[in-house]
Amino acid sequence: MIERNHTQDYMMESPVEKNKKLIEDITDSYPKKVSKERKTHLVVIDPSEEQHIMADVATIPGIMTNRGCSYAGAKGVVFGPVKDILHLTHGPIGCGYYTWNTRRNLAEPEEGYNYFIKNCFSTNMQEKDVVFGGEKKLYGAIKEAYEIFKPKVIGIYATCPVGLIGDDIKAVAKRAEEELGIKVITVSCEGYKGVSQSAGHHLASNTLIMDIVGTEELEDPTPYDINIFGEYNIGGDVWLVKDLLQKIGYRVVSVFTGDSKYDDLAKAHRAKLSILMCHRSINYTNRMMEEKFGVPWLKVNYIGISSTIESLREMAKFFDDPMIYENTEKVIEEELKKIKPRLDYYKERLKGKKAILFVGGSRAHHYQDLLKDIGMETIVAGYEFAHRDDYEGRKIIPEIKEAPHHKILDTYHFERVTEPAYPQEKIEEMKSKMPDHFMNYEGMMVHMEEGSIVIDDFNHHETEELIKALKPDIFLSGIKDRYVFQKMGVPSRQIHSYDYSGPYSSFEGAVNFARDMDMAINNPIWKEVTPPWKK
Amino acid sequence: MECNNTERKYLTVNPLKTCQPLGAVWACLGIHQCMPHSHGSQGCTSYLRMQLTRHFREFIPTTTSSFSEAQVVFGGVGNLKQAIRNILSIYKPKVIGISTTCSAETIGDDVPGTINEMRASGDIPEDVKVFTASTPSYVGSHVTGFSNMVKSAVETFAKKSSPNGKINIIPGLLSPGDLREIKRILKIMGIDAIILPDISDVLDAPMTGEIHLYQKGGTTISEIEDMGNSIATVVLGREAGIAPAESLKEMYDVPYEVLPLPIGISNVDKFIMKLSEITSKPIPYELEEERGRLVDMMLDAHAHWYNKKAAVFGDPDIVEAIVGYANDLGINVLYALTGSYSSEWEKTVKSMVPDAYVSSDNDLWYLKEQLDKKPVDMLFGNSHGKYLAKEYDLPLLRVGFPILDRANLQHFPIVGYKGTAWLVERTGNTLLDYKDAKSPEHLLELIM
């Protein structure tokens, strides 16, 4: 705990000055070099100055980070939820094991399609494979998987030793495709690539666009075909959203990749618009889709009531169709009416509560909107593996200097290969009607309150100090720090996996979320932490 | 799902093991004020922290060397040095336990050499202890990782001075509740023991409203040093514990005894009698009473499980112990499966259940294929078995690691007579709940 000698002085200061001093204190307690580095990752929102944050650089060795690896991003996040691909991890057992049912991307079996999502497939590399090469084992595993499970598609995800010993997984995949007559896709997502799981998102996006999207045709296109991107159906989020969109009159061609099937992903290039939820995990694919197939995309947010309403209205503007306009308003009105009494009850119980949000993807941004809707306030928000554009908006992209670790992640650009669903002029016209921030994501920082704190690649030490100093009413993060801060007496919930709850999306989801906040914050057991004889 | 049963040589489906680093970190957590450090890519650390946190529902502090491409090309020693300096300055541990990952092993980083160098240059102060183990995922399993780390702790710290009259206990991958029960038994018997590692009071810390990076529990370094002076070592679970016991025997001539985990009446008997034999302490009547109560419970409820057919899967030591427990109850084990290969284990378990299929290099998909041909009435195993339980409509008794989908179980022992009694309660009543759920209303029974 940081000692404070001049409590009085702190009281007199503005929140901005106070918090600037606080993060100064926290980072000063590090060794000098670490302190200097970490200072660039912590920002107190101060509208009086131009502010930048350092992101997507290597974690300091020895710091207890929450970051994962490239394989986690590629297999764990982006490809893992596709339910009919047989996901085969090529590597030692641990990697495959840890991504076995450990993200709550729910998916429903469908008649006529394979359903592999509950299984863990691995080549279980042994020492002899590392010494003599693992290609034979990989081929054998693909063949056995084919014989037993008859998959239409197999996905191969390579982990650390595979890259180090130089197995040619692409060649093995090609041979298997020719000999077995199935599709075999590969992602070389060895864990040491890049500085976090973010590298894996990039690599997975490359495979999506090079090998999958555009390989099948949509037989019965409608004017209302859309894709949902950056949505992994945690706790069933996409099911609520799909339901709303279908009520309005849209047809969802594909979801990348929650509850999705290979065939749907292959047809995604025929949609008229893609909406993007998680900006970090898959914006690469959206950019390439626009270049290659002319499918524009819109950054939306359906976490939170007001954000959902705004997103639905902006989508309607893009289509500019009387039926869509009318149904959008009708659906909004109906949904609001349905949830109002329940939401009001929780709002009363949660008024003015303060939250700290440390959660990857775009969630640290999105959940601020939802918290606001239920009367709560976000005082600190941070990401594990974001890039500067997630904080500062896409306008910063040209300014981001390419770090050495980016070079290993191929960045592709495309010429248009197909007649887009709309002519380019029509797309431009539709885009021009939209407010700029929907097509050009503004990032998280601009939407945060003055004096609130933003942290990149947050870690245990900083979190502990912030919680002690700022005493939030709730700490929203992932599993790795959930129990430690709970033990400090701070109610904690997992916003990666929703603590076995959810969905939290759109209107009904907001009520679920409010109910869970209430159960965490106002739980009677908090009164029992201190024994009565010590009170 | 439709599929053909096929012999597999290359493909693992639904594994019954995970990798060495997880077991290594588990072992480190049972050492007082120890920071487990994983030398390699940060994904490994992130994953094992997630898994251990989900199992124990406690804070799992661990650090990583955070490899990226530069380290796998030019070597990771620089990152290791930086990491150690940062750990010392930020987290102030008394001990650092370093395990390696696939990438560090494949590129061949010299971890012990680096530590010696840092020790010599004064980068690591005298009063901070460091021990290291080589634990790539492509060798063994998390059980091997645990064993290697405990072995390293013993080899690094144990010394020989004057006899201490104590016994050493290497308890394997037991839960905090189990360790608490073992300590209670030792106390009743008046035996002084050094338990390595001891995760009780670390991974079952009480809710106090305060934060502690290191909880009060864990084996201290001076206790580990003293292990060379003990009367004997008792290994609970061969696979996780024999290697460190062998080291103590070789180095300091401390004899060892290998026992199954003390789950089930005959396994607990073996444990208690062995303790008594080694220490020449009598078995107190209090334990005899506990045993008598357990026998009474087993008789009262025997009809609910007698002659049921079961499959047992999970970590090797727990599977072996549960097979013994099942034999005590008159449950017929048809399958005993683990993923951590050991011919010794196979021989032992086969001798206990000669008619069962026993395999130490197997996965859950194999069990699924067999259930189609030769079904069972119940499953004993970890949470991964719940999908089989659902598909084949079977009760699943959750034992071992990992248990991800039920809360609080790690607080309740299944070792000792008391722990076994609680497992007996769960076994019988789970089967009764299952029977009630299946019975049509007019056949629901109130009395038995």
TrEMBL record, chain A:
Domain Nitrogenase/oxidoreductase component residue range list: 69-521
Record GO terms (molecular function): ATP binding; iron-sulfur cluster binding; metal ion binding; nitrogenase activity
One annotated Gene Ontology cellular component of this protein: molybdenum-iron nitrogenase complex
Keyword match Thylakoid: no
Reactions the enzyme catalyzes: N2 + 8 reduced [2Fe-2S]-[ferredoxin] + 16 ATP + 16 H2O = H2 + 8 oxidized [2Fe-2S]-[ferredoxin] + 2 NH4(+) + 16 ADP + 16 phosphate + 6 H(+)
Pfam families reported for this sequence: Oxidored_nitro (PF00148)
E.C. number: 1.18.6.1
Record keywords: ATP-binding, Iron, Iron-sulfur, Metal-binding, Molybdenum, Nitrogen fixation, Nucleotide-binding, Oxidoreductase
Highest taxon of source: Bacteria
Cofactor(s) it depends on: [7Fe-Mo-9S-C-homocitryl] cluster; [8Fe-7S] cluster
Assembly and interaction partners: Tetramer of two alpha and two beta chains. Forms complex with the iron protein (nitrogenase component 2).
Function, in words: This molybdenum-iron protein is part of the nitrogenase complex that catalyzes the key enzymatic reactions in nitrogen fixation.
Family according to the record: Belongs to the NifD/NifK/NifE/NifN family.
Descriptive protein name: Nitrogenase protein alpha chain
